[in-house]
Amino acid sequence: MPLLWARCTVDPSHLHELNRPLAMYPAMPTCPDCGAATVHDMSVGQRQSTVDPVVVFRGPDGQIRFPGDANGTSAHVYASQGFERIEIRGAAEMRRFEKAMNATEYSRAARRLEHKQSQREERQRILRGELRQRMQSMSTAGRAIARAVMDRNDNRPRERVADANFHSEVYSFDRSNRDESRDSQGRRRRD
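Predicted structure:
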């Protein structure tokens, strides 16, 4: 049932919060204090339910830190080290933050993978040189096997950078998609 605010037409100080079925709207009840007619007052009761913000700290070098408690010891330590306190309020702000974090983590993973692949290629170049030297003293069948192994190794799929999939559980999960709301067979529980 919707929540309505009814204001008395005789005495405006009489303001009442009512739960009314939609079927009864727009008819308004009489004032419980004086019995006069009431009107639906939409200027009050516009209370927004606010949740505590998600707090993160951004360092001078761009590092992001996540304190365990928004006002706890770690938050004070980050503030004393020159970290900027960022309060994320609402889903739109969180989605922007998640997008930025995913881009940062993706580029970090791409740099790490590029470095790893360059090391692998250098190691492979050295080992292939040694193998080619040994292939000169191999039989024809041995050389064919060595070439087949090198070709197989060259045709292996390369590792790719995956999406970081950074997300805030507060804004991304509810009981419909958490593991806790499924039974042991994977069916949704009705809790």
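Summary: The helical segments are 73-80, 91-135, 140-154, 169-172.
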